[in-house]
Inverse folding.
C-alpha cells in the first residue's frame, strides 16, 4: 500500500514537471539580417504589415509579419523603406513569422 | 494684399490661441492656396525665425562650453569638431560624402552630418540668406514628413545634397515636434538604433512616454534654444538647462524620508535603475558586413539591458585623453550622486602628443583600413605628415561616462533596500564613506520599520 502510494506520488511529480515545462515552452526565436525587398501595408491606419526580407547569408526570402506600432509608423512615413538592411528576430506563430525585433542596421 | 494676409494670419493665430483644436496650425488655407515654399512660407508668420535658428546648437552642432576642463573658452565645441570614442569622426573629418567603392564595387553617400537640418550645401554652422533658405523646418515640425525625400544625392554639379520633403502635404501637418521628429536623429546616433544611449522613449521603457508626453514637453525650447541637462559627454548646449525639479519641485515625494534624499541623491539615481546602448566599440578593428561595407566593432546592448555606475557629480567634467566623466565629491557641497552609463571606446592616439586622433570613416568603411581613416582625418585637419601620424598612431581605450537621464521609471524605482542592503547598488566605500558610516548605512535599522509599514499599506 505504502509502495503504491510512493509510485503514485512519483508519477504525479513527473506529470507536474512535464506540464510545467510544456506550459512555459516558447516558440523558438529566429534571428536574421536581411534586406527589405517588399513592404505590404494597407494605408495609414494599418495595424499589421508584411515585410519581405532577403537573408544576407542564405539569400532566401522570408515574409515577416510586423505588428508593433513603432515599426509600423516607420513603414508609414518611410523611415524604413525597401533596400534597407534589417536586423530581425521573429517567432513562428500560426504559420506566420511574427517579428519581435525589427531594426535598421545602419546608423548615422 | 500683404497687409490683408498678415491680418488674416493674426486672426487665425488669435482663434488658435482661444481654443481652436491643438492639431490645427494657423495659416492652413494660405499654405493650401500658395503651396509650401520652404522657410519663406514659415517666415510669413514667424519672421526672423530661420536666421535665429542658425544660431542654435541644432544648426551649429557646437557652442561655447564652460563646464568641461581643458577647453578654450573662446572656441565652440560639439559634434562639429569633437574627438571622442563613441563617434571617432565628426562633421569636419567625416563630412557627408561619397565613400570609395567596397570590394563589391559599391559606394554610398554617408557622413556624420546627415542629421544636420540643412541641405548640406548650406551645412553645419553656415550663415546668410542661402543658409536661412536651406533650413528643413518640416523634418522637426511635420507629423507627415516623407522620409524617402530626406536622402543624400548628387546634383548636376556633382555636389552632395541632402534632400528634403517640402511638399504641401507635409507642411499641412506642421506643429509641435512629436517623438518621432526628434528620434529620427537621436535614436540612431552613434552608429545605429539605440547605440549611443539606448534611448528608447516609448511607453514600455519610460514613465514620461507612458503618460503620453513627448520630448519637447521637458526639452521645451524658446526661440529654438533647447534646454538640456548636464551630460558629461554632451558638451554643446544652447545655454538653457533643465532638471527634473523644474516640474517635480524639491519635495517630489509624499514620504519625507525620500524627500530628505533629494539634497544628495539625484532623482535619476533611484528612478533610472537601468541603462542601455553600446557598451564598447573598437575603431581600430572594423568588421565587414554582409553588404561588404565595414563598421567599427561594436558590443551592443538594448535599452534597460545594463546597469549604471554611480558617482558624485557637481556638473563639471574631467576631460582627459583616456577619460571623460564627472567631477565632484561628497564634500564639495555641490555634488549629488548620479547614475551614469559607462562606455569604453578604443581608437588611435597620437604617438607624439598622447592626444586622441579622429578618423574619417570613408576609407575604413570601404576597405576596413582604420589607419587610412586616421591619415585622411589628419590631412583634413592640416596635421603635419598625415601618413606618419597614421603609421605611428597608438591604439588605446577611452572611458566615457554618459548621463543616464531617460528610461525613467516610477513603479520600478530603487527603494531603501536596493541601496541600503548589504549588497546594495551603491558602493558607499567608493563614494567616500568611512567603514563606520558604511556599517550604519547598510544596517536594516535604517529602513526596516518604514518598509514594513509600506508593506502593510500595499497589502
Amino acid at each position: 500500500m505504502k509502495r503504491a502510494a510512493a509510485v503514485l506520488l512519483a508519477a504525479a511529480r513527473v506529470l507536474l514537471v512535464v506540464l510545467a515545462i510544456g506550459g512555459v515552452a516558447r516558440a523558438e526565436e529566429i534571428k536574421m539580417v536581411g534586406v527589405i525587398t517588399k513592404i505590404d501595408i494597407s494605408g495609414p491606419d494599418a495595424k499589421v504589415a508584411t515585410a519581405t526580407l532577403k537573408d544576407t547569408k542564405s539569400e532566401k526570402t522570408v515574409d515577416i509579419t510586423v505588428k508593433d506600432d513603432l515599426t509600423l509608423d516607420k513603414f508609414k512615413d518611410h523611415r524604413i523603406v525597401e533596400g534597407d538592411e534589417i536586423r530581425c528576430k521573429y517567432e513562428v506563430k500560426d504559420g506566420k513569422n511574427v517579428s519581435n525585433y525589427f531594426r535598421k542596421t545602419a546608423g548615422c | 494684399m500683404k497687409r490683408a494676409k498678415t491680418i488674416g494670419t493674426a486672426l487665425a493665430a488669435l482663434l488658435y490661441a482661444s481654443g481652436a483644436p491643438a492639431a490645427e496650425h494657423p495659416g492652413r488655407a494660405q499654405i493650401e492656396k500658395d503651396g509650401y515654399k520652404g522657410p519663406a512660407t514659415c517666415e510669413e508668420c514667424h519672421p526672423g525665425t530661420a536666421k535665429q535658428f542658425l544660431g542654435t546648437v541644432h544648426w551649429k552642432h557646437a557652442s561655447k562650453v564652460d563646464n568641461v576642463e581643458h577647453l578654450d573658452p573662446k572656441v565652440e565645441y560639439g559634434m562639429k569638431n569633437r574627438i571622442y570614442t563613441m563617434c571617432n569622426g565628426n562633421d569636419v573629418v567625416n563630412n557627408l560624402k561619397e565613400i570609395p567603392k567596397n570590394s563589391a564595387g559599391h559606394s554610398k553617400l554617408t557622413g556624420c552630418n546627415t542629421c544636420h537640418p540643412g541641405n548640406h550645401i548650406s551645412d553645419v554652422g553656415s550663415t546668410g540668406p542661402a543658409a536661412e533658405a536651406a533650413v528643413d523646418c518640416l523634418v522637426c515640425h511635420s507629423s507627415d514628413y516623407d522620409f524617402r525625400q530626406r536622402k543624400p544625392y548628387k546634383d548636376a554639379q556633382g555636389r552632395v545634397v541632402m534632400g528634403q520633403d517640402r511638399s504641401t502635404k507635409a507642411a499641412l501637418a506642421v506643429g509641435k515636434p512629436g517623438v518621432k521628429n526628434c528620434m529620427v536623429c537621436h535614436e540612431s546616433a552613434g552608429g545605429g538604433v539605440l547605440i549611443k544611449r539606448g534611448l528608447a522613449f516609448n511607453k514600455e521603457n519610460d514613465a514620461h512616454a507612458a503618460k503620453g508626453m513627448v520630448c519637447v514637453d521637458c526639452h521645451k525650447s524658446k526661440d529654438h534654444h533647447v534646454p538640456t541637462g548636464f551630460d558629461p559627454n554632451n558638451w554643446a548646449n544652447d545655454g538653457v538647462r533643465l532638471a527634473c525639479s523644474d516640474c517635480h519641485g524639491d519635495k517630489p515625494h509624499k514620504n519625507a524620508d525620500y524627500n530628505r534624499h533629494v539634497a544628495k541623491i539625484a532623482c535619476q539615481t533611484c528612478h533610472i535603475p537601468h541603462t542601455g546602448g553600446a557598451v564598447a566599440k573598437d575603431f581600430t578593428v572594423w568588421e565587414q558586413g554582409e553588404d561588404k561595407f565595414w563598421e567599427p566593432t561594436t558590443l551592443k546592448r538594448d535599452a534597460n539591458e545594463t546597469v549604471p555606475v554611480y558617482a558624485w557629480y557637481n556638473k563639471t567634467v574631467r576631460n582627459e585623453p583616456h577619460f571623460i566623466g564627472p567631477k565632484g565629491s561628497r564634500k564639495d557641497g555641490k555634488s549629488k550622486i548620479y547614475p551614469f552609463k559607462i562606455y569604453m571606446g578604443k581608437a588611435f592616439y597620437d604617438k607624439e602628443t598622447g592626444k586622441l586622433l579622429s578618423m574619417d570613416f570613408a576609407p575604413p568603411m570601404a576597405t576596413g583600413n582604420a589607419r587610412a581613416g586616421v591619415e585622411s582625418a589628419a590631412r583634413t585637419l592640416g596635421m603635419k605628415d598625415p601618413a606618419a601620424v597614421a603609421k605611428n598612431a597608438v591604439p588605446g581605450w577611452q572611458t566615457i561616462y554618459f548621463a543616464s537621464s531617460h528610461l525613467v521609471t516610477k513603479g520600478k524605482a530603487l527603494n531603501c533596500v536596493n541601496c541600503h542592503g548589504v549588497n546594495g547598488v551603491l558602493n558607499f566605500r567608493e563614494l567616500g564613506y568611512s567603514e563606520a558610516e558604511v556599517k550604519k548605512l547598510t544596517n536594516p535599522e535604517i529602513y526596516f520599520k518604514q518598509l514594513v509599514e509600506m508593506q502593510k499599506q500595499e497589502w
